[in-house]
Amino acid sequence: MCHHSVPSIVTPIRNKRKLFTAISIDYILVLGFYIIIALTAIFAFGGNIQQVYTLNFQVDKCSNNHTNPASITGFEIFLPTFPIFTLFSSYTIIALTLINNMKVLISFNDDMYYGRLVQYSMPLIAIIPPLVIALFTEDVSAIVQYVGSYSGTLIQYVFPALLVYYSRKHVQQEYLLPFIKRRSKSQWLNIRTINIEQIYYRINPFVSFFQTKLWVYFTGIWWIICICLVTLDHLRDRFAFY
User: Fold this and answer.
1) Do 125 and 174 belong to one domain?
2) Where is the protein situated, by its record's location annotation (predicted)?
3) 119, burial (CB in 10 Å: exposed 0-12, middle 13-18, buried 19+)
4) Which of 55, 144, 147, 228 could pair with 50 as two cysteines, CB 3.0-4.6 Å apart?
5) 14-52: string of b/e by CB count within 10 Å (b at 16+)?
6) Would 36 be classed as within a structural domain?
7) What pTM does this model have?
8) What is the maximal distance between C-alpha atoms in the chain?
9) Based on the domain organization, do 146 and 233 belong to the same domain?
10) How far apart are CA 167 and CA 188, in angstroms?
11) Tens-place pLDDT, residues 99-126
């Protein structure tokens, strides 16, 4: 969700000279908090950590162990139900994003013959599947284990990498190359024979540090490694072969 809000935050900012530093500090702080959570979880729960972190704070009524922070009055309800507060905010944003993406996918406009039907059916498509899954599923960790590990990696690594790759290719073909041709007064330039990245860096001083294609390829390789490791972990839990 940190990445989800970046475009809407960056776009209205007029002076972007210190934007890279500000966002870098923000991500470093987020990383620091994640490291703190991971370390405290390791020291507090050892090797018996649930897939959903807040499930570790469930209180066993039959036990006399009061070392669990959730045994404190007030925390007993707040800690296990904390994901509900985050889902209230993120679910709405994700549902609206999904609806807008579906409208773009079918080139939706108000003048369509079935425009009103499509307009009211898309929110139902975004709301009904997770509602049905929530009604018929009790094991939340199973959903996180499979849906989060496989489809989550596609959303986190593959789709952004493909989006960046083809977006840059489109920008180079449709905008950057014609611009270079106009400036050089040559109509025989080939995009493969010139250093597009170097020229683009001169044109746009705010270009990303991750502009090279190596980062896109690295993301794909990292996705394959993650899928292999997650699959081995699932096989280990299911068959206990090591």
Assistant:
1) no
2) Cell inner membrane
3) middle
4) 55
5) eeeeeeeeeeeeeeeeeeeeeeeeeeeeeeeeeeeeeee
6) no
7) 0.57
8) 82
9) yes
10) 24
11) 887 777 777 666 666 667 777 788 888 8
Q: Where are the beta strands (DSSP E) in 115-201?
A: none
> By the 8 A CB rule, do 125 and 153 touch?
no
Least confident range from 116-125, 145-154, 200-209: namely 200-209
152 and 86 both lie in a single domain: no
Residue 7 belongs to some domain of the structure: no
Q: Using CA atoms, how far apart are residues 40 and 18, in angstroms rounded to an integer?
A: 33
What is residue 15's predicted lDDT score, i.e. its pLDDT?
79
Angle (CA) 101 106 110, round 5°: 95
Residues constituting the chain? 242
Is 172 within 8 Å of 204 (Cβ atoms)?
Answer: no
Q: Is the pLDDT of residue 66 over 60?
A: no
Which residue segment(s) compose the domain that 216 sits in? 140-242
Provide the b/e sequence for 193-202 (b: ≥16 CB within 10 Å): eeebeebbee
